[in-house]
Amino acid sequence: MRLGVDVGGTFTDLLLHDERTQRTFQAKTPSTPQDQSIGVAAGVKLICEKAGIAPSDIELVLHGTTVATNAVLEGKGARVGLLVTEGFEYTLHLAKSWTPGPLFGWIVMDKPDPLAALADTRGIPERMNARGEIVRPLDIGKATALIDDLCSSGIEALTISLMHSYANPEHERRLAAIVAERHPDIPVSLSSDILPEFREYDRAITTVMNDYVRPIMKRYLSRIEDRLRDEGVTARLHIVRSDGGLMSAAAASERPVHTVLSGPAGGVTSTVMIARRTGFNKLLAFDMGGTSTDVSVIIDGQPTISRSTEVGFFPAKVPTLDVRSVGAGGGSIAEVSELTKSLRVGPRSAGARPGPVSYGRGGTEPAVSDANVVLGYLPPVLLGGDMALDVEGARAAVGRIGDALGLSAEEAAKGIIDIANEVMLGALRVITVQRGLDPRDFGIVAFGGAGPLHANAMAELLGCYPVLVPPSPGVLSALGFLEAEFKNEFVQTFIRSTVGLDPAEIWTRFDGLAQKAEAWLDEQEVEGADRGILYSLDLRYEQQGFEVTIDLPRALVAARGGAGEILDKFHATHQRLYGVRFDVPVELVALRVVATGATAPVDEAVPDASGGDIAAALMEVRPSYFDGAFVDTPNYDRAKLAVGARVEGPAIIRQYDTTTVVLPRHYAEVDAHGNLLIWPVSRGN
């Protein structure tokens, strides 16, 4: 039995899968922002009651967390000390000398304080060059004095990031040994371990960010393991990485920077699985929760991996799934500007407490969920009857928005929905139109608690069909955690021209990286049959500023061949990405090895194969607001819709974890995998 746990801003989602019976159980509990582990423990207790099992029956817990992200965004991380090469104390302040646009944007730029203060930074007498040769020997005596001074000043963690340590980490390791001997209670991160790549600012800020969130992550994981133990859970705890892979809780404690986009990764992983099962190879992942909406693009059944991301103002150069987030969710608050008398929605959110007015937890400001209640899109009860909504309270709150704008409550609610949709539409345009992709070539996978409520409207605006609503959309991210594989990346900077390059130089270094990968797989206890190792090269045209990652075919790896075939692939990839190729030498920048460990797939039971009469699934007929008026709208129980069933819009399809809106002039049908596919009637079948 495997348990996936996804902690969101409003709800904590849990999905339990029994591999023996192929049954799944799901639960939602309110998140507890003051201590996320409280909500997780409550969810574990609830889902075990639903499944009729003891907590000790769970064999593996897979958890996505936003602890690292929130610590950086809220500026509530640890006090970090920083050791750099003497003369480079201002690395974090100078950053990339970048200022925001448009013109004169720098005038009003509010530059954030770095994650490690200048007062907590010390310059160490030493220097390596870019080839790893010692230019200035490490002064042990002065270094020890500087370390003692810094470590006794009250810092909670220490980062060591010396110039060109990616080429030779000897000095960093000697400094770490001094700290371990004299100040063993202070955790230390080496840039040569966290990010052994060139570009000193990226390496320094990524390693500092790791230490900035490290004590917080350690405390959180310790609390959650204690609470799970108190509930009787004896299973191993694994954390989801930003690139959709898995790592042990111990590894996450040491390298929490790899979890900065842990939460959204599960939904993207599930979308990839959906693409492979259904044959829809071009999909947009649309994850609308209570606080934010995350979108991503799947092409040819594969997610887009980015080598860096941003957490607030700060870059983090770690492998991540390419996800764009906007502050629009079911809890996004609607308000009328006193100055312009215009309606705004988000990014402020009601969160889990007090939540939208309709939740009845003390919220007084109208949110997107309240607008859905007023329009009749959300039923009076959620979570299978466990959660009753305050319909009149929602109507009164939205009515106040209407009064300020001279509109009825229904018109105000429709305006709230339309504005929220436009905000989310902007994110979808960024990942499609702005990248030269036509959204009409894609389907859209709707998940998250609010995704199926809005996805049909998004598809109508963008022209992307079908809208695909999976069987468990409200907990799809938790399902993605169950389907994630173990993953870690090992890299070595190796800047050389490919002209006349001996392939043996490449493969010797690949062998060293592969040994590290195998050792990591041993630590994660991945069985030999489940292991995989992938090889890639970072290449660029000579004198270019940035590089392109090119995967090596398995046949080339087996033959330990030369770079000719890879160069052809690089030229083609560069032309596809940027529309141009150059007849100049190509330069090798870095070697990468990715270790993977496969996990068992989650095969959910599908509905009955016979379409049957959908009248058996009809729960009630309620008024809902479409095309400017309330119309009697059938509400169906999704659990009773068999494979092949077809529902004509307008309609509302209800289930435990979400509600799906089918707009007029559209229809929904259940495919062989139990997914709801929503198409426009004009499709013609």
UniProtKB/TrEMBL annotation:
Domain Acetophenone carboxylase-like C-terminal as annotated: residue spans: 508-673
InterPro entries found in the cross-reference section: ACX-like_C (IPR049517), ATPase_NBD (IPR043129), Hydant_A_N (IPR008040), Hydantoinase_A (IPR002821), Oxoprolinase-like (IPR045079)
Domain spans labelled Hydantoinase A/oxoprolinase: 203-489
Keywords: Hydrolase
GO molecular function, one term: 5-oxoprolinase (ATP-hydrolyzing) activity
The keyword Transmembrane appears for this protein: no
Hydantoinase/oxoprolinase N-terminal domain boundaries: 2-181
GO biological process, one term: glutathione metabolic process
One GO term describing the cellular component: cytosol
Keyword field contains Membrane: no
The EC number(s) this enzyme carries: 3.5.2.14
Residues of the signal peptide: none
Name of the protein: N-methylhydantoinase A
Protein species of origin: Prosthecomicrobium pneumaticum
